[in-house]
Amino acid sequence: MATDGQTPKALTAEAQAFTKVDRNTQWAPVQKLNGVVADRKTNRISGVSWGSRKLFTWSDQGRLLGTQANPSHVIDYQDCEYAGAGHQLCSGVTGLKTANGQPFELGGLALTDLADGTIVHEVPFQKFSTAGHSMTRNPVAMEADGDMLRLVAAPDDGEEVAGTELFVFEARP
After folding, report:
1. Separation of alpha carbons 83 and 73, rounded Å
2. Among 109, 98, 115, residue whose Cα is nearest residue 135
3. What is the DSSP string of 114-132?
4. Is 153 exposed, middle or buried (0-12, 13-18, 19+ CB in 10 A)?
C-alpha cells in the first residue's frame, strides 16, 4: 500500500477502467449495489445486490445483460476487486449466532469467475478488530504487489470502541 498519500495500485487500476464508461449512459436501476468490478477481459461490469443474494452483469454501455442468484450461501459480499483473467476476489461477512445465542460475524473471501458467477475458491477470514468485528465487514481493498498479496481493511464504524481503524495484512508465498 502506498504510504505517501497516494491510492493503492489496485484501486487506481479499477478507477482507470471505469473512466472508459460514458458518464451519461443510462444504467439499469438497482436499489443498492456493492462489489462493482470492471472485467478487463470482456469490458463488462459486474456488481452484487445489497446482501449479495443477486449478481448483475452490464455491458460497458450500461445495458443489463443478466442477473443470477449468488451461489455462495455463506458470505454476503461487501467489496469485490478484479483479480485478473476474468475473475474477481470478493470480501464479505455473514451474521451467525453462537451456541448460547450471542452474535458472531463470520468473514470470508471468495474468488469467483466473472463469466458465470461460479465460486473458484471460498475461505473464511478469521481476523477481528478491536471492536470485535470481522475484518471483512466493511471496506476492504486487495492488491498484488510483486510476490506479495495485500489486504487493507476498515471493519468498524466511526463510533466503535477504537473509532475506524485501518488494518493491513500482507502475505508472501
Report:
1. 22
2. 109
3. TTT--EEEEEE---B-TTS
4. buried
Length of the chain counted residue by residue: 173
**Per-residue model confidence as pLDDT tens digits over 47-90:** 998 888 899 999 988 889 999 999 888 899 999 999 989 999 99
**Cell 504510504 found at:** 3
CATH of domain 9-17+32-128: 2.40.128
CA dihedral 153, 69, 36, 125 (to 10 degrees): 10
d(CA 107, CA 82): 19
Closest to 36 measured CA to CA, from 69, 87, 81, 70:
81
Tell me the residue type at 100: N
Count of beta carbons in the 10 Å neighbourhood of residue 162: 9
pTM above 0.90, yes or no: no
- Find out whether 67 and 94 touch, Cβ atoms under 8 Å: no
* Burial (0-12, 13-18, 19+ Cβ within 10 Å), 84: exposed
Task: State which residues of the chain have pLDDT below 50.
Answer: 1-21
Q: What does the alpha-carbon distance between residue 71 and residue 145 come to, in Å, rounded to a whole number?
A: 30
